[in-house]
Specification:
Pfam families: Oxidored_molyb. With 223 residues, the chain is an alpha+beta fold. It is built from 4 helices and 13 strands. Bound molecules: ligand MTE and molybdenum atom (MO).
Length: 223
C-alpha cells in the first residue's frame, strides 16, 4: 500500500469480491451482445439505473487528511508537480453534471462534481511529445490506465466535491478522478499519482480480465 506518513487505511482487502469479479470477467457476465448510441440512448447496454450511489472499492478506505494530501504528476512531463492541498485548490475550478456507469451494472444520472479539470492541470505539467498514456496510483494501492487523449478530454476532472459538498471518504475524497465516458473503474478514488508514459501499463482490473479501454456504449466490459 502507501508509504506516505500520516495516512491511515482501514478495512481489509476483499479477496472474495476480487475473485468474484475475476470470475464475472471469465464468464462474460451481463454481456448483451449489443451496443448503444450515446447520442440517442442514455442508458448503456446491460446497465440498470440506480437512485442511490453505491460504494465500490477493494475494501480498504484510506483516510487522507487535507494536510497530508499530495497530487504528483510525474514521468514524461516538462514540469513535475507535487501539489499540496492549497496548490491543488489554486488551480482553475470547474463544475460538471455527468452520468456514471459501473461495470457491475449500475448507472447513475446527473452527478454534479466540482474540481479541477485534467486539462487545466496538464497545462501546468506540460506532457512531452512522447507521452501517450497515463498510469494512476491511489492511496489504497489501486491503479488504472488511460490513453493521454482520453485523460485530457474536456469532461475529465479531479473532483473534490459532489452536489456542492466535499467528496466523502467512501467515494474517494479528498480527490478522485471522474471520467464519465468510460466504465467507472477508470475513475480512481483517493488518487495521489499520475505518471505519463510512452507505453501503456494496464492497471488493477485491466490485468484481471477487464477491458483495457472500457467504453460502456460498446460493452467493453472484459478484455
Ligand atoms: N482507489 C480506488 N479507486 C477506485 C476503485 C478502487 O477499488 N480503489 N474502484 C473502482 C470501481 S470498480 C468503481 S465502480 C468506482 C466506484 O466509485 P464509488 O465507490 O464512488 O461508486 O471506483 C473506482 N475507483
Ligand atoms: Mo466498478
Amino acid at each position: 500500500m502507501t508509504e506516505d506518513e500520516g495516512i491511515t487505511i482501514s478495512g481489509a482487502v476483499k479477496d472474495k469480491l476480487i475473485r468474484t469479479k475475476e470470475r464475472w470477467a471469465e464468464e462474460g457476465r451481463l454481456l448483451t451482445g449489443t451496443t448503444a448510441d450515446p447520442e440517442r440512448d442514455r442508458l448503456p447496454p446491460g446497465q440498470t439505473l440506480a437512485k442511490d450511489w453505491p460504494v465500490l472499492d477493494l475494501g480498504v478506505q484510506p483516510d487522507v487528511p487535507k494536510e497530508k494530501f499530495r497530487l504528483r504528476v510525474e514521468g514524461l512531463v516538462a514540469n513535475r508537480l507535487a501539489l499540496d492541498w492549497d496548490g491543488f485548490m489554486a488551480l482553475p475550478q470547474s463544475e460538471m453534471v455527468v452520468d456514471i456507469h459501473c461495470v457491475t451494472q449500475w448507472s447513475r444520472y446527473d452527478n454534479r462534481f466540482g474540481g479541477v479539470k485534467v486539462r487545466d492541470l496538464l497545462a501546468v505539467a506540460q506532457p512531452t511529445p512522447e507521452a501517450r498514456f497515463v498510469s494512476m496510483t491511489c492511496y489504497d494501492g489501486y491503479t488504472t490506465n488511460l490513453t493521454l487523449e482520453e485523460f485530457a478530454a474536456a469532461d475529465v476532472m479531479f473532483a473534490h466535491s459532489w452536489e456542492g459538498q466535499p467528496l466523502t471518504r467512501q467515494h474517494g475524497g479528498p480527490v478522485r478522478l471522474v471520467l464519465p465516458k468510460l466504465y467507472f473503474w477508470k475513475s480512481p478514488k483517493w488518487i495521489t499519482r499520475v505518471e505519463l508514459l510512452a507505453a501503456d501499463r494496464p492497471g488493477f482490473w485491466e490485468v484481471r480480465g477487464y477491458h483495457n479501454h472500457g467504453d460502456p456504449w460498446l460493452e467493453e466490459r472484459y478484455g
